[in-house]
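Saturday, quiet lab. Running sequence design on the structure tokens for the scaffold JK sent over.
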């Protein structure tokens, strides 16, 4: 084999150093690793035996492939040198060689040295789903013990009430489970948990974050955020210096504003930061002079500067770290959380003990146990190696670690211990392909060694493999171009330098039309295609269906018309592309893969998807599970009717309706029982079978019950006769196998079996439907980017590029930052930000974006010959930043746009935007990019596709009328000459032409808020109503504008919040009111800038008014209600009028709302609503008319709930201090 210079170095380098091989995608790292092992075996001076080498990889498939390649290489060398006895002996040793996954290696070592552990001999590995159930049981036991002490353990009570959730404690359970699992990926879980608590204790003890680890972490994060802001201001200053006259008022103004943030960068401690943070204020920028307005070019420059500054303001306000304005706000929540964090730690430690006990009772270990048990075998409590570790170290002369970028903390610790300091570890990986953060992989380990070994110290040696032997040059060029623009230390933790660039090394035959292989970027217009009545789910499906149609059209054209020529490695010749050469890579297959499958089949394209969705939703599985549910408890109407309606028993809708008439109000089970007693033959047969099955359940396992359903009741045969019968039968057999596993694991109970299946479905292995292998080689594949890792395909279509990672957890964790959570005041039901949580969120957001970019790199480097990228122009979360890039004076997109993007599409668009032939792409942009620096590179082809209703229907028509083969397993009735009866014809006609009599009701909502009703009946709305939620975010946590730019909605929200929480008893003087407002700041509920938005005089006016005094008296009598939630029915015709027919006049809609205030006076009700509208006292009565509808509905609701008349309805306008009776 012709090795490159870098490959030769990786194969032969020896200098008593650890070696890190940074191997790019498709660089032949496996071949290099195998060749190095062979060279080690044949070393003339220090030959090693294959059983003295430890080779570790991350999947069983990769380990098998590696061992086979080593064995094949030994056989090949033996043919060349047949007399080499040492080499010949390796052929017998290779079978027992340690070429395996980390977990298989750990299992082998523990099993062979079981006497050194406390583990039962003959232990087995527990499955992921079974382990989840055991963990659930262990957690249930732990929490039960804590709930017994609920009233005497305040910290646990606060944890439960604050973080459990609204209806149950699922959120707390999830947080505990996630932290426990993460801690198990560390070498010393208990130490990490204790250190996490210690970080809180230090603040609890001192009362401040100053001088603690939090201070260093905060300053590092805040400076990184400030750097992004300065990127905007530096651009403004560059433009000002280039385009504005010297000392122009705008240039001076923005220079001063930039200086505020430069001062932040100089801060060395928290105190300095707080001092400089107080100086940050976005003031009103200077007005544009008449002279500047007359100069069109200058006016445009000033507008551009203003737009950039607005982006900077948005970035500042969206970053929660900047909301901490004083030492107290930084420290108080951390200090208050200390008891809760300590209790949380104790629960997790108890969970670890209980979970371990349950596993050992079954003589089982999980994968994490294998790692920790091996650590115990080879490491003492002080971190030094044990004697056994030294024995192990002496055995292995060389250690090879594949996919090192996916290693976690404990695994890396194992490598170092087994090496014994001999510097004999050969690590292969690629940081750019580190995509398993969700499995707690730590790319920092690779990054640290990459940095460390790049220097001239003797700690290790770095070798780079940059030649790509997988892809055509066109694919490599398009990959290099994009990642040169989007991959950097600030976005992906690594700069895409010349060292990281892919070099073309593949030798493909020349083709007639090289342009056919250019990377394509196709953008589908999916905006405004849904009607206003579409549900969110329908809109989601429409967007993905349109993109799927674009992909299907392109595949069809590629195979049928273009007939792209691809290289066949088996024949060594070119041939036309087939469907089996094409893969569609999705960021996530959830809810998306099924849409793509459906559309591709419409285009007569065979498809295979490895989506794990759908198994539990298939009709055959749902039927069996429903049967199990009613065997367990027949008093469940839905599963009972589902089983009766199924092909097993074949009840018709009319027969079920007839049975229901026997008892209209009881459980359906009793109706069936009565029917059986009344000699209804069909009902009697069903009832007898059900009772028999319930009898069997007393002594039979779940698998035996399923067997009886499938075989004794012939459901397996019935399923086989349905469409796709072979798949349905395979699904049932999988269910039977899962039930057998469930029973063998000593789990019991029909109810728990369904939970067991859900755990398997949610596990990493998933529980996808059975797949048909017929035609698999000629079918398009659909898979995720994660599952494509390590694979390659002639044609890759990357789609679903607007997928965004879910977030929003209220409890987070990190190896360095510990545990972070919100502080929730359980008495006031108010949640406050906590610095610990916000810092971890900030770090996790950066890591998440970095991993997304690396995922994009993995996706694009799967392509061998042709890469097609499909995008849509939707804006998830209404973010349109990708359409509005800002340029610096050099015509480059400024870095924050790449750093703050979150989805594939945004990086793809912004990265390829400067290409010469991306004119159509640039036309989609909404900002002025006329000065964008255009590159001469032309390695992508861009196409913009917009569908109309007409051409969507055309596509569907074409797909339906084309000649498609009919699946053999579809049952089709043969035509008959026999005439049908008139009665049957009339019945068919009536059924097919049936119109739902209340069809108009399907187009109106079941529930409306008072505000929605008001909006539907009025053209304008001047105030935004807020609603009380079970746990309110502290107003200090919300993103409001600064004092100079507060809008009406923000002012209204803050004012209503104060009116809700102020104590009316202490409002008789200006001093009392001022003191209450100030206390909201002191308690970290409001910030100074938010208090500055409040018109305190208007609140004083209100409590000094006649209605304010009446309200105070009502409060003292206990008859005042504030922020009162209303829920009451009204007639649909009352709201929608003529849209509701007379036949539906009795239909009702639930109305919900929140009344500001009302009180009882002389046994009648006074309704009061306060408004912050900016109006005068004279105009107030007219303004009050806008709220008449709202007051009418509040009146109707309150009177119906309390049975009392409302005698007065008053709207108080706070600005002018005017009360209006309405």
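Result came back. Writing it out in full:
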């Amino acid at each position: 084999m012709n090795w490159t210079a870098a490959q030769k170095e990786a194969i032969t380098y020896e200098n008593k150093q650890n070696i890190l091989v940074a191997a790019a995608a498709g660089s032949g790292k496996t071949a290099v690793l195998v060749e190095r092992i062979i060279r080690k075996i044949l070393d003339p001076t220090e030959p090693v035996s294959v059983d003295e080498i430890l080779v570790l990889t991350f999947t069983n498939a990769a380990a098998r492939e590696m061992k086979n390649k080593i064995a094949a290489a030994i056989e090949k060398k033996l043919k060349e040198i047949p007399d080499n006895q040492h080499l010949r002996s390796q052929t017998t040793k290779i079978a027992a060689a340690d070429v395996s996954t980390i977990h298989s290696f750990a299992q082998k070592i523990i099993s062979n040295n079981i006497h050194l552990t406390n583990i039962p001999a003959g232990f087995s590995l527990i499955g992921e789903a079974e382990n989840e159930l055991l963990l659930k049981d262990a957690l249930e036991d732990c929490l039960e013990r804590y709930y017994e002490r609920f009233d005497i353990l305040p910290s646990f009570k606060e944890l439960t009430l604050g973080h459990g959730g609204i209806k149950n404690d699922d959120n707390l359970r999830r947080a505990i489970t996630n932290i426990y699992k993460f801690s198990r990926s560390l070498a010393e879980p208990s130490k990490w948990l204790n250190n996490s608590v210690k970080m809180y204790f230090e603040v609890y003890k001192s009362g401040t974050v100053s001088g603690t680890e939090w201070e260093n972490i905060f300053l590092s994060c805040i400076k990184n955020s400030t750097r992004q802001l300065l990127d905007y201001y530096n651009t403004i200053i560059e433009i000002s210096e280039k385009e504005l006259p010297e000392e122009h008022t705008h240039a001076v103004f923005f220079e001063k504003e930039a200086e505020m943030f430069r001062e932040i960068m100089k801060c060395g401690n928290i105190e300095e930061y707080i001092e400089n943070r107080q100086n940050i204020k976005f003031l009103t920028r200077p007005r544009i002079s008449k002279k500047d307005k007359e100069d069109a070019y200058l006016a445009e420059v000033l507008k551009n500067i203003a737009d950039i500054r607005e982006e900077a303001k948005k970035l500042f306000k969206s970053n929660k770290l900047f909301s901490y304005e004083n030492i107290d706000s930084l420290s108080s929540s951390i200090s208050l959380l200390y008891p809760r964090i300590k209790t949380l730690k104790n629960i997790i430690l108890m969970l670890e003990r209980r979970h371990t006990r349950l596993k050992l009772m079954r003589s089982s270990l999980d994968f994490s146990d294998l790692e920790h048990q091996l650590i115990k075998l080879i490491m003492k409590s002080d971190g030094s190696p044990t004697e056994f570790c030294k024995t192990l170290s002496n055995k292995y002369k060389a250690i090879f670690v594949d996919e090192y970028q996916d290693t976690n903390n404990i695994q890396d610790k194992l490598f170092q211990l087994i090496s014994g300091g001999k510097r004999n570890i050969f690590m292969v990986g690629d940081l750019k392909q580190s995509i398993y953060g969700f499995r707690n992989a730590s790319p920092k380990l690779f990054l640290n060694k990459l940095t460390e070994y790049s220097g001239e110290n003797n700690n290790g040696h770095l070798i780079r493999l940059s030649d790509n032997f997988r892809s055509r040059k066109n694919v490599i060029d398009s990959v290099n171009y994009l990642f040169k623009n989007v991959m950097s230390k600030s976005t992906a933790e690594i700069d895409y330098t010349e060292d990281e660039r892919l070099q073309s090394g593949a030798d493909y035959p020349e083709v007639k039309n090289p342009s056919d292989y250019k990377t394509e970027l196709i953008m589908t217009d999916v905006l405004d295609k849904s009607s206003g009545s579409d549900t969110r789910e329908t809109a989601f499906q429409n967007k993905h269906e349109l993109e799927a149609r674009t992909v299907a059209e392109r595949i069809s054209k590629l195979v049928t018309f273009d007939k792209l020529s691809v290289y066949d490695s088996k024949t060594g010749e070119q041939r036309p592309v087939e469907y089996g050469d094409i893969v569609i890579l999705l960021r996530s297959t959830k809810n998306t893969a099924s849409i793509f499958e459906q559309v591709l089949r419409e285009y007569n394209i065979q498809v295979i998807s490895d989506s794990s969705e759908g198994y539990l939703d298939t009709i055959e599985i749902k039927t069996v599970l429903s049967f199990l549910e009613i065997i367990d408890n027949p008093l469940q109407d839905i599963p009972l009717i589902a089983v009766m309606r199924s092909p097993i028993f074949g009840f018709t809708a009319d027969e079920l309706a007839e049975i229901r008439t026997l008892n209209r109000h009881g459980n359906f089970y009793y109706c069936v029982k009565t029917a059986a007693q009344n000699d209804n033959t069909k009902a009697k047969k069903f009832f007898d079978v059900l009772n028999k099955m319930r009898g069997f359940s007393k002594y039979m396992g779940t698998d035996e019950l399923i067997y009886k359903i499938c075989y004794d009741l012939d459901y397996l045969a019935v399923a086989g006769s349905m469409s796709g019968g072979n798949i349905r039968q395979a699904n049932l057999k999988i269910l039977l196998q899962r039930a057998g596993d469930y029973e063998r694991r000593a789990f019991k109970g029909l109810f728990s079996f369904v939970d067991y299946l859900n755990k398997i479905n949610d596990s990493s292995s998933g529980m996808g439907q059975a797949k048909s292998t017929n035609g698999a080689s000629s079918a398009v594949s659909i898979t995720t980017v994660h599952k494509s890792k390590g694979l390659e395909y002639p044609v890759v279509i990357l789609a679903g590029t607007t997928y965004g990672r879910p977030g929003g957890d209220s409890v987070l964790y990190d190896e360095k930052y510990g545990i972070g959570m919100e502080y929730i005041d359980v008495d006031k039901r108010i949640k406050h930000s906590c610095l610990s949580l916000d810092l971890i969120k900030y770090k996790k957001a950066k890591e998440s974006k970095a991993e997304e970019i690396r995922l994009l790199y993995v996706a694009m480097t799967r392509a061998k010959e042709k890469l097609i990228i499909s995008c849509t122009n939707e804006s998830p979360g209404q973010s349109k930043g990708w359409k509005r890039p800002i340029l610096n004076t050099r015509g480059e997109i400024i870095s924050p746009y790449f750093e703050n993007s979150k989805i594939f599409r945004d990086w793809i668009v912004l990265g390829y935007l400067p290409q010469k032939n991306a004119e159509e792409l640039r036309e989609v942009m909404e900002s002025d990019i006329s000065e964008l620096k255009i590159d001469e590179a032309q390695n992508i082809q861009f196409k913009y596709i917009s569908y109309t209703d007409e051409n969507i229907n055309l596509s569907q028509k074409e797909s339906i009328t084309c000649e498609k083969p009919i699946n053999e397993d579809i049952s089709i009735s043969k035509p008959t000459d026999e005439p049908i009866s008139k009665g049957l014809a009339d019945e068919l006609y009536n059924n097919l032409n049936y119109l739902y009599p209340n069809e108009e009701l399907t187009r109106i909502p079941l529930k409306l808020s008072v505000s929605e009703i008001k909006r539907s009946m009025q053209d304008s709305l001047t105030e935004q109503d807020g609603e009380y939620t079970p746990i309110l975010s502290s107003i200090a946590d919300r993103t409001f504008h600064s004092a100079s730019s507060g809008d009406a909605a923000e002012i209204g929200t803050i004012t209503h919040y104060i009116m809700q929480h102020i104590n009316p008893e202490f409002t008789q003087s200006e001093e009392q009111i001022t003191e209450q407002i100030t206390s909201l700041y002191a308690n970290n509920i409001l910030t100074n800038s938010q208090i500055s938005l409040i018109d305190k005089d208007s609140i004083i006016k209100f409590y000094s008014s006649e209605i304010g005094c009446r309200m105070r008296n009502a409060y003292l009598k206990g008859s005042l209600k504030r922020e009162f939630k209303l829920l009451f029915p009204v007639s649909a015709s009352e709201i929608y009028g003529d849209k509701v027919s007379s036949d539906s006049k009795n239909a009702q809609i639930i109305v919900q709302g929140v009344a500001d205030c009302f009180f009882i006076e002389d046994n009648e009700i006074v309704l009061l609503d306060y408004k912050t509208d900016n109006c005068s006292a004279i105009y107030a009565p007219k303004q009050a008319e806008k709220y008449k509808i709202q007051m009418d509905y509040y009146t109707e609701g309150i009177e119906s709930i309390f049975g009392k008349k409302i005698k007065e309805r008053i709207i108080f306008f706070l600005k002018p201090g005017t009360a209006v009776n309405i």
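Notes for JK: DSSP finds 48 helices and 30 strands in the chain. The mean pLDDT is 86. Ask whether to fix the surface positions before the next round.
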